[in-house]
């Protein structure tokens, strides 16, 4: 899932409760679980450690900014996937009738930085972005 040469990040984020969170991240997204308690759970998020902490009063709060005519949640996290993996995940999410904040689409088609992207919310309202670059060498292209 991850290239051992790339440092892994750690992210802790608030959720309303753990059962729906586990079902979403483990069963739908395919993240393995690690350590846990009654108040938190670790997930292997494509090789990165993300930790869901129960904090209902903080979960899912975010403003948005307009990007390409879409209201993009200002607070979000995600991962850059291989092109085929991105589309497989998009298809799986559609099969499970996930309500997208921004449906999967391709930005900058035929231009530097061409990328597929999609935004969705977890059960606590936290925004996730999954994206993929047709050419990974263009990730930071201007």
Automatic annotation (TrEMBL):
Species in which this protein is naturally found: Rhodohalobacter barkolensis
SUPFAM superfamilies xrefs: Glyoxalase/Bleomycin resistance protein/Dihydroxybiphenyl dioxygenase (SSF54593)
Taxonomic lineage of the native organism: Bacteria, Pseudomonadati, Balneolota, Balneolia, Balneolales
Protein name from the UniProt record: Glyoxalase
Any Pfam family hit: Glyoxalase
Superkingdom: Bacteria
Positions of the VOC domain: 7-133
UniProt xrefs under InterPro entries: Glyas_Bleomycin-R_OHBP_Dase (IPR029068), Glyas_Fos-R_dOase_dom (IPR004360), VOC_core (IPR037523)
């Amino acid at each position: 899932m991850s290239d051992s040469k790339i440092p892994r990040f750690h992210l802790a984020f608030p959720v309303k409760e753990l059962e729906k969170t586990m079902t979403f991240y483990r069963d739908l997204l395919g993240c393995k679980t690690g350590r846990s308690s009654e108040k938190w759970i670790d997930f292997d998020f494509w090789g990165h450690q993300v930790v869901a902490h129960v904090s209902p009063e903080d979960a899912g709060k975010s403003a948005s900014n307009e990007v390409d005519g879409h209201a993009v949640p200002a607070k979000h996290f995600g991962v850059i996937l291989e092109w085929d993996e991105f589309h497989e995940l998009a298809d799986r999410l559609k099969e499970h009738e996930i309500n997208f904040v921004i449906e999967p689409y391709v930005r900058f088609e035929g231009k530097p930085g061409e990328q597929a992207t999609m935004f969705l919310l977890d059960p606590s309202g936290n925004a996730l972005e999954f994206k993929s670059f047709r050419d990974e060498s263009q990730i930071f292209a201007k």
